């Protein structure tokens, strides 16, 4: 049975358990307990930052948030924000119109349904406007260190280039990664984000400097 699994893995381009463990070990070795590059001081700021970071760079978000948090320092003030004023503060962010609306809706819901305290469980977080599975997972990873995986564009690209998943969606890719790695998912998530951002880039990946070069079989590999 074991030999059949190994043969099947090779045929379908999947990774063996041994290869997966090696990839996991190398990620954890090269990224020692990595954390997000988003700058935040508390749970409120983290939630806002992660919501803004959807399809937007962390660098851009970090440029936006100082003025934003100066004007709206907490969930209560954000719940009372004027929509147009908020849009002006975040208009250099992608999809700022929708994000501004969702930020205010999220804040109002927290005030109305959770007594002004942002919930720290996945179900309640996902009940808030603008917070889907990925955003909820990132918040819980960064604030509580929960053993969760979140799949953004970097994690999606890296996991497919490394043959850790062939799933067509981030949600299904997340399932594959959880099954593959099982533990230390919070660190592996951020390691894969940073790896995809600075090494395994979408265009011109830095393969010569890559610590996974020898086991990478990607068609995008640059020799």
Automatic annotation (TrEMBL):
Which metal ions or organic cofactors does this protein require, according to UniProt? [4Fe-4S] cluster
| Domain HhH-GPD positions | 52-198
Free-text comment on the cofactor = Binds 1 [4Fe-4S] cluster.
Provide the binding site for [4Fe-4S] cluster.
200, 207, 210, 216
Q: Which reaction does it catalyse?
A: 2'-deoxyribonucleotide-(2'-deoxyribose 5'-phosphate)-2'-deoxyribonucleotide-DNA = a 3'-end 2'-deoxyribonucleotide-(2,3-dehydro-2,3-deoxyribose 5'-phosphate)-DNA + a 5'-end 5'-phospho-2'-deoxyribonucleoside-DNA + H(+)
Q: Which UniProt keywords apply?
A: 4Fe-4S, DNA damage, DNA repair, DNA-binding, Endonuclease, Glycosidase, Hydrolase, Iron, Iron-sulfur, Lyase, Metal-binding, Nuclease
Enzyme class per UniProt? lyase
CDD domains according to UniProt: ENDO3c
Tell me the protein family, please.
Belongs to the Nth/MutY family.
| Species annotation | Campylobacter ureolyticus
User: Sorted alphabetically, which Pfam families does this protein's record hold?
Assistant: HHH, HhH-GPD
Q: What is its EC number?
A: 4.2.99.18
Entry's Gene Ontology molecular function annotations: 4 iron, 4 sulfur cluster binding; class I DNA-(apurinic or apyrimidinic site) endonuclease activity; DNA binding; DNA N-glycosylase activity; metal ion binding
Q: What task does this protein carry out?
A: DNA repair enzyme that has both DNA N-glycosylase activity and AP-lyase activity. The DNA N-glycosylase activity releases various damaged pyrimidines from DNA by cleaving the N-glycosidic bond, leaving an AP (apurinic/apyrimidinic) site. The AP-lyase activity cleaves the phosphodiester bond 3' to the AP site by a beta-elimination, leaving a 3'-terminal unsaturated sugar and a product with a terminal 5'-phosphate.
Provide a GO biological process annotation: base-excision repair, AP site formation
Q: In the UniProt record, what gene is named as encoding this protein?
A: nth_1
Q: What is this protein called?
A: Endonuclease III
């Amino acid at each position: 049975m074991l030999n059949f699994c190994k043969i099947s893995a090779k045929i379908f381009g999947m990774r063996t358990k041994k290869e997966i463990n090696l990839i996991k070990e190398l990620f954890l070795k090269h990224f020692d307990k990595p954390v997000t590059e988003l700058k935040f001081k508390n749970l409120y700021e983290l939630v806002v930052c992660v919501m803004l970071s959807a399809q937007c760079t962390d660098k851009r978000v970090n440029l936006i948030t100082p003025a934003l948090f100066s004007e709206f320092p907490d969930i209560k003030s954000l719940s009372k924000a004027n929509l147009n004023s908020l849009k002006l503060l975040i208009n250099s962010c992608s999809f700022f119109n929708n994000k501004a609306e969702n930020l205010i809706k999220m804040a109002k819901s927290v005030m109305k349904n959770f007594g002004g305290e942002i919930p720290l469980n996945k179900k309640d977080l996902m009940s808030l406007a603008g917070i889907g599975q990925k955003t909820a997972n990132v918040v819980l990873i960064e604030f509580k260190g929960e053993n969760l995986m979140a799949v953004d564009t970097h994690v999606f690209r890296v996991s497919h280039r490394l043959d850790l998943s062939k799933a067509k969606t981030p949600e299904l890719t997340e399932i594959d990664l959880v099954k593959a790695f099982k533990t230390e998912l919070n660190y592996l998530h951020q390691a894969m984000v940073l790896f995809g951002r600075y090494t395994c880039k979408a265009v011109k990946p830095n393969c010569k400097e890559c610590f996974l070069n020898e086991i990478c079989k990607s068609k995008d590999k640059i020799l």
